[in-house]
Amino acid sequence: MEVINTIGRRKCSVARIYMTPGTGKIVVNNRDYKEYFPTGPLQFIVNQPFLVTNAEGKWDIKANLDGGGITGQAQALRMAISRALCENNIEDRPALKKEGFLMRDPRMVERKKPGQPKARKRFQFSKR
Fold first, then answer.
1. Checking phi first, is residue 46 left (phi over 0); if not, alpha (psi -120 to 50) or beta?
2. 85-97: buried (b, 16+ CB within 10 Å) or exposed (e) per residue?
3. What is the pLDDT of residues 70-92, one digit of tens each?
4. Residues forming a β-bridge with 10
5. What is the pTM assigned to this prediction?
6. How far is 35 from 92, CA to CA, in rounded Å?
7. How many Å apart are CA 59 and CA 90, to the nearest integer?
8. What structural domains does the chain harbor?
């Protein structure tokens, strides 16, 4: 039985997964993924690679998620699953690449500048 080990990242989140042939069970940090990601859109993000490659219910996934928020973690998990599917079957790569699941999203939060309340917002200017 082969285990495919990949990593996915988004913002400050890191997802390390172990994918084995199975029945479609996804465990995230020792909890079911529907319990870990309570909303429908986040569950859909996690399942997107399987929907694109028609591989629903064929793989079991054990994931360790760390850092960032819940949305970044879901997108990091999506990237890790996509990489694992590509490692298993190279014919799935063009479909996943077309959807953008294999590219690391480089967008990060802009830092706060000194003398300002936020990254771009300025304090109100008073002429007099």
1. alpha
2. bbebeeebbebbe
3. 999 999 999 999 999 999 999 99
4. 13
5. 0.90
6. 29
7. 16
8. 4-99 (3.30.230.10)
% of the chain beyond a pLDDT of 90? 94
Neighbours of 15 (CB within 10 A): 29
Confidence (pLDDT) at 116: 94
Residue 16 phi/psi, 5-degree rounding, is: -110, 125
Residue 11 has pLDDT above 90, yes or no: yes
Phi/psi at 78 (5° precision): -60, -45
Q: Residue 1 has what pLDDT?
A: 59
Contact 79, 8 (CB under 8 A): yes
DSSP 3-state helix, strand, coil percentages of the chain (rounded to 5)?
35, 25, 40
CA distance 62 to 77: 11
**Residue 55 CA: distances (Å) to CA of 8, 10, 88:** 19, 23, 11
